[in-house]
Structure formats: structure tokens, C-alpha cells
Amino acid sequence: MGRRHLLKPTLATALTCLSFYAILSLTLSPPTSPSSSSYIRSSSSASSSSFSSNIIDSSRSLMDVPDLHPSSSSVRIFLYDLPRKFTYGVVENYLLARDALKPATRYDNSVLRYPGHQHSAEWWLFTDLLNASRPADSPVVRVFDPEEADLFYVPFFSSLSLVVNPIRGVSNGVVYSDERMQDELVEWLDRQPYWRRNLGRDHVFICQDPNALYRVIDQVKNSVLLVSDFGRLKPDQGSFVKDVVLPYSHRINSFKGSIGLGNRDSLLFFMGNRYRKEGGKIRDMLFQVLESEKDVIIKHGAQSRESRRMATHGMHSSKFCLHPAGDTPSACRLFDAIVSLCVPVIVSDDIELPFEDVIDYTKIAIFINSKKAVQPGHLVSMLRRISSDRILEYQRELKLVKHYFEYEEPNGTVREIWRQVSSKLSLIKLMINRDKRLVRSSLADGDCSCLCSNHTVGSIATGRSISRN
Fold first, then answer.
1. Residues 410, 45 contacting (CB under 8 angstroms)
2. Angle CA(400)–CA(406)–CA(407) in degrees, nearest 5?
3. What are residue 300's DSSP bridge partners?
4. CA-based, 20 to 30 A from 82: which of 32, 146, 153, 411?
5. d(Cα 194, Cα 171) in Å, to the nearest integer?
6. Whole-number Å distance between alpha carbons of 365 and 67
7. Per-residue pLDDT tens for 378-422?
8. How far apart are alpha carbons 304 and 278 in whole angstroms?
């Protein structure tokens, strides 16, 4: 009798989990993709000289743009008209902090340019939604009536704000504070009815720097987070199920030549900080085993214009490019290597990668266990055994997917990010409807949804109860 008594609840739990698994499998199944040959795009059509190409007059209000008739197949997204200090104001403070602008002067939005930065995705997505001539077949269409929206985009430049913070950004006598900006953002959101309506589940934030939004992450964790990896997020804050992994914006020039090994004389190249925290400590060990190897170029170097010039030359003239973990598992160097057609050698056991539903990274990169990589002679001997034909095959595959990592490419990174975001909608609706019927969640260790389900129903910002009338 005791076994029979326990069998029913056990079966019920198992069936519940299987049901969620089936729903998530359907939700996350990639759409049918065109043949890989159709992914090759002409880079000449992209304009990389300015972040602001094809953007509407940015001095106008975000609400002044004529509504575009949404495609029935596109996910409808509403762009919040945040106070200027959260968008262009962050750029202004960044430039003021570096003496690039005169203090105590408000600059027209049209003259401000987002700085060259590995976390510039927040600018690309923002300006894409502002673009009056966005392609009609985009995975998302901007709507101007929040009642029509499926999703709500919060365009705070959280990564750039983090960079402004430690410098000396002073505007009108007020010292810039990233923590204050985060608090004020959540205070502003807490006054918005659409934020409160579904506990933020249908909102989208970009926090690409691993430390971006760190102060308020628990208050926005129900939302879709656009991140570089999950290195600094707790299991109840981020997951593959609800969030989207973004590529860093590459910092060196793309390789414009053809595949081939004629000008790639070096076996392996790396240039970057030797000493990093956490998982990045492996870098020093790799330096020790590689710096005396023949045909291997491994250099310590910080971000600078000269370093980028040297890195461009090194990646364009090497067969393989090393990608060890940094302070978190991912870094922009991987995407520098991809656009250089330099085969990435990834030594980062916990790395998460963007767009894996359409990209098989084993076709474009080599993954090596960290413990084996630091064994003297192991890494270089393995690379030297790889034939020229195999390297050329890697290069061909890199060229096929290269456009996914070009933010300036019309059919590149921005489009793919929106496709990834739009794929979350079914699950978002599921969780919103599920929230409506649950009085509270009392599970101690999460549930089958793999989402941030263990929250107390209440105002995300203040903890006050929310009426469900």
C-alpha cells in the first residue's frame, strides 16, 4: 500500500515535467533555415563607417515616427520612450568623462556617436528600432501603441553606463553614478502599467557586460535578458530558456580576402591580458606553456588603437587563434577570430555561444579541455597534426557564418538577435498565463519550467502587492 500511495504523486510530478519539456522543445525548436550557401552576404552592402547610418533624425522623440504596418508573422515590440539620460545621456556622459565634449552643454542627439566598444549591441538594437526604413520581413516590428505589443524593449545603455561610472563623469555639477541610474530606471519602470501588469515577463533588457544591471538584476530577472554569457548570473536570474546570448561586437577589421593559407605563416596567435580573475587565471598557465613555442605568437596587451592594429595583423596572418576564458567564460576575441577567418581554439570549459540553433560551432572552432590545454606540448602538437585541407574546411565554414557576427551587416547580427528574441514569445505567454492562476510558488529548488519561478508576487521594484483585478 505504501508504494502504491507514493506512486500517484510521483507519476504526477513526472508527467508535469514531461509536459513542460514538450512545450519548451516546441518553443525552442529553430525554424527551418535556408541552405548554408544562402547565408553568404555581400559585405559591400554594409556601411560600417558610422553607427548612425539609416537612422531617423535622432533629435525627434521616439514616438514621432510614423507607425509601420506590422507583418502578421512578426512579433510586435514596443520601444519605451525612456528619459534621455538613459540613452543618449549615457553617451554624452561617457564623452564628457574623456574630455571629448565641452561640459555643461546639452548636445543634439544627432551629433552623438556611440564609442567603439565591444558591448555596442545596445546601440545597434536601439537604433534599429528607430530606423524608419526597417525591412518589412524583420522578425520583430515596432508598434507605437503599447496595447498592440507582444514585447516591450527597455533601451537603457547599461554596459556603457557601467564604463562611465568609475571615471569622473560630471554633468552640470553632478557626478555620474551607474548605481543611481539603475535605481532610477527601476523606479521609472515601476510607474509603468505594462511593466507591472505581467511582472516584467514580456520586457526585454540588454545587459551585455557581465556586470551590467548588477544592482537591480533580481528586480528584472523575470524579463528576457540579452547577455554575453551567464558567468555572473545565478541560476534563478538567467537561463537559456528565457534569455538570449549575444556575440560581442568585434573590435578588429574583418578579413576581406579569400580562404587560403598562403599568407597565414603563424600557427597560433593570441594577444590580450595575461592576468585575469576567476576562470581567466588559465591565461597565465597558457602563456607559460606557449610563449617559447615555434610559430606561436602570444603577447600581453591591453586595449588600445595600436593593440588593435597588431591584433588585426596577427589574426589575419595566423591559422589558429587562441580563445581562453577571461573574467567570465566569453570574450570579444572569439568574434574577432571568426571575422578574421582564423580558426578559434577555445579553452573555456563553461563558455556559452550565440545562435547555436543555426550554428554548429564544432564546424568552425576547436574546443580543448582546460586541463589538457595547459599540458606542455599538448596544444601545439595537436594543432600541427591538423591538415591543410582541414584548416581550409574550417575557413569555408567560418565564411558561411561570418555575417552572423557583423552588427553592421543588414542581414547580420541585429536581425538574428531579434529572431532569437521573437522565439521566446510562446514561452513568455505560457508563463504569464501560468502566473495568473498561481497563488504563490513555494518550491525551494525551482521547478520544471527552468525559469525564475520562485518569486513572491508583488511589485518588482518595491515589494508592494499588485492587484490582479
1. yes
2. 145
3. 272
4. 411
5. 32
6. 43
7. 999 999 999 999 999 999 999 999 999 999 998 999 999 999 999
8. 24
pLDDT of residue 458 exceeding 80, the answer is: no
Q: What nine digits make up the cell of 236?
A: 534563478
SS3 (DSSP) at 154: strand
Cell of 38: 544562402
Structural Rg of the chain based on CA atoms: 24
**Cell 558567468 belongs to residue:** 231
At 442 the pLDDT is 54
CB neighbourhood size of 295 (10 A)? 14
Length of the chain: 469
In angstroms, rounded to a whole number, what is the distance separating the alpha carbons of residues 160 and 205? 14
Q: Give percent of the chain above pLDDT 90.
A: 57
Per the listing, cell 578579413 goes with 255
| DSSP secondary structure code for residue 424 in this structure | T
Enter the C-alpha cell of residue 444.
525551494
Q: Find cell 551607474 and name the residue.
A: 178
DSSP class of residue 367 equals: E
Distance (Å, rounded) from C-alpha 342 to C-alpha 334? 10
Mean of pLDDT over the chain:
80
Q: Tell me phi and psi for residue 393, to 5 degrees.
A: -65, -45
Greatest Cα pair distance in the chain: 81
Confidence of residue 102 (pLDDT cuts 50, 70, 90): low
Rounded to the nearest 5 degrees, what angle is found at the Cα of 40, between the Cα atoms of 265 and 305? 50
Q: In whole angstroms, give the CA distance from residue 170 to residue 161.
A: 13
Q: What is the DSSP letter of 231?
A: T
Q: How many CB atoms lie within 10 A of CB 156?
A: 27
Residue 7: Cβ within 10 Å count? 10
Q: Which stretch of DSSP H or E encloses residue 180? A: helix 178-189
Do residues 172 and 85 make contact, with C-beta atoms less than 8 angstroms apart?
no
